[in-house]
Amino acid sequence: MQPLNVIVAADSALLRAGLTHLLTDHGITVVAQAVDGAELKRKARAHRPDMAVVALKEPPVREDLPLLVLAHAPDPDVALDLLDDRPAGAGYLLEERIPDVGRFIGAVREVAAGGSVLDPAVVPEVLGRRTARDAFTAREREVLGLMAQGRSNRAIAQAAFLSERAVERHVTAIFDKLRLPPSSRTHRRVLAVRAHLQC
């Protein structure tokens, strides 16, 4: 498995220690710890990690490295800020909803690899606040919500009881409605979620 260097930033010393122990147990190197955003910025410059796992009351979502934010409570504005100008390498999970260690470690590796992870509990709350959701059919909104969870077309098909071909049609319709042309430089799935949430 690819070596991975991480900074852990958390308000709580106990949480910093716990996250560090958990990551280390799964073969991930914790190169530094930080108690706030300013220290995270300094240590990121000094250690140049692959990503940061952040559990701060005020997470610095504008850092120039992949971030996985662990939140105490859902904050759609923070989730949106995290995705803003970040076509890849962003994650937002609620601490209490992380179902198991394996899924958490998977999310860490996904974000470090440039992927995106968004807690399912945040998606409906944010989507419900945006009038642009009216541009989509109910099925497209469902598919978009599953896309926001980082699911593949196959996983969406299983969750929504659709064929993969039907999912592909819905995804294409979403891209078309958001005017997101194919590009080798950006991840259209993440941009689709971000553009819809920011409307």
Automatic annotation (TrEMBL):
<protein>
    <submittedName>
        <fullName>Response regulator transcription factor</fullName>
    </submittedName>
</protein>
<dbReference type="InterPro" id="IPR016032">
    <property type="entry name" value="Sig_transdc_resp-reg_C-effctor"/>
</dbReference>
<feature type="domain" description="HTH luxR-type">
    <location>
        <begin position="129"/>
        <end position="199"/>
    </location>
</feature>
<keyword id="KW-0805">Transcription regulation</keyword>
<dbReference type="InterPro" id="IPR000792">
    <property type="entry name" value="Tscrpt_reg_LuxR_C"/>
</dbReference>
<dbReference type="Pfam" id="PF00196">
    <property type="entry name" value="GerE"/>
</dbReference>
<dbReference type="InterPro" id="IPR001789">
    <property type="entry name" value="Sig_transdc_resp-reg_receiver"/>
</dbReference>
<keyword id="KW-0804">Transcription</keyword>
<dbReference type="InterPro" id="IPR011006">
    <property type="entry name" value="CheY-like_superfamily"/>
</dbReference>
<feature type="domain" description="Response regulatory">
    <location>
        <begin position="5"/>
        <end position="144"/>
    </location>
</feature>
<dbReference type="InterPro" id="IPR039420">
    <property type="entry name" value="WalR-like"/>
</dbReference>
<keyword id="KW-0238">DNA-binding</keyword>
